Amino acid sequence: MTDPSAPGDRAGDRYARELERHLDWLDSFTSTALGVLASASGIYTYLGVRSLLENTGAWTTFAALSYSIAVSVGIFVFWSYMLRLLPAVRSAVSRIGLLLAMVLGCVAIVAMSSWLNAAALAGGAAVETHMATTVQHYQASLERAHSNAVAGQSLVRDVSRVRQSFNDLSELEAGGTLSGFSGRGAVFRVLSQKGAELAGLEQQLNDAAEPIEATFAQGNAILSGMRGVAVGSGTLEDRTVEFSEDAVELAGLITQLRQLNPAPLVSRAARDLSEAVVLPELDGSTAEIQQGQSNTITSVLSLVEQRADTLATAAAEVEALPPPDEAVYAPLSAADAVIVYAGNFVPAWAGAISIDLLPAVLVFIIMVVQAAIRHGRGIRHHDDRMTVGEMRAALAAADLLREYDDAPPMPDTPQHRGAGMPINRGQPPEQPPSPRAVD
């Protein structure tokens, strides 16, 4: 009776043998391909290490070369282990353990190689991105400092308005409208005193306009040069040095603009306007006139305090404006810049990681194929593959068995029983093995 499952078993064996032939052919160049990938990763690792090392001597080159060779060997050995062992194991515990080991190895490879590969692929572009970003920060700080300084300088209109009000009051007092007594007496001198103080403050505010605009124009010129350095030609190291010098100069100009802001000056002048008052001697010819002068001076002082509060409030609003950010340029190496601006260089990171972790895809492919081979052969399969040496040994054993079967039987006599047999005293002669005992 034939086994109904035999045709299916034969088909599964043919399917398994076909997959094994494919694996044998692929295995002939897998090690070479893995070595090429490991060597390429080592080359980019070498370039990344050189970007981190400041010295350029022979020892630096030797150190970078040694590290890159160690990385290449480590990658090759690690993935060779994974390609051979992980598809071969069958138990779930062993497979999970090797998968965890592979994950840990992938993390180690990214830590020791992939980020350096990314630095070699996009390190220069990352440094240029850092310089361009720094230019934007400096530009924002310069514009903020200039805006605050212009807002402080615009307080000249408030000062001019208050000064004009005191001048008008002094003219009214000269005509006798305020105190009721015409002339340039004590009240007129108080009004003239405050008007003169405000005139001096107004002149200072007008004088600050030109330095503010000149400093701002100089800062814009430096910013234009920094933009050219960030995207210009020449070695990256020389451009970084030039960019650093421009950044230091621009930081000084931003600080200068903050100091040119006249808002604190107006705030102090407003406080002095109400507190520092020199009261003149009442010069009325009669007690009635002097009493009128005293009352008018009291009213004038109250007015001065109100105008001072107005100026102080305006100055406080300017001082409350957001200050410019502290823009400081910190030079970055190519490797550090790639990490800081990783989001801008996703393709470079993907390529750097893929060149190191691509063999993981091969590992999973071989796992799937090995599982298909086992499924095709089934549970009762036996290994029918033989090496050339095993085949020769099997043919030699078959020849020996055939010669034994073809040999004529020896007569059963004492002479023939002992002929050709070694003498073994005290033990029965050894019987030749029967054909059925040979496997």
Automatic annotation (TrEMBL):
Query: What transmembrane ranges does the database entry give?
Result: 25-47, 59-81, 93-116, 348-373
- Annotated region described as Disordered, given as residue ranges: 404-439
**Does the entry feature the keyword Transmembrane helix, yes or no?**
yes
Q: Where are stretches of biased composition, namely Pro residues? A: 429-439
Alphabetized, the UniProt keywords read: Membrane, Transmembrane, Transmembrane helix
What is the name of the protein in this document? Uncharacterized protein
Q: Which organism is it from?
A: Paracoccus amoyensis
Q: Mind giving the lineage of the organism this protein is from?
A: Bacteria, Pseudomonadati, Pseudomonadota, Alphaproteobacteria, Rhodobacterales
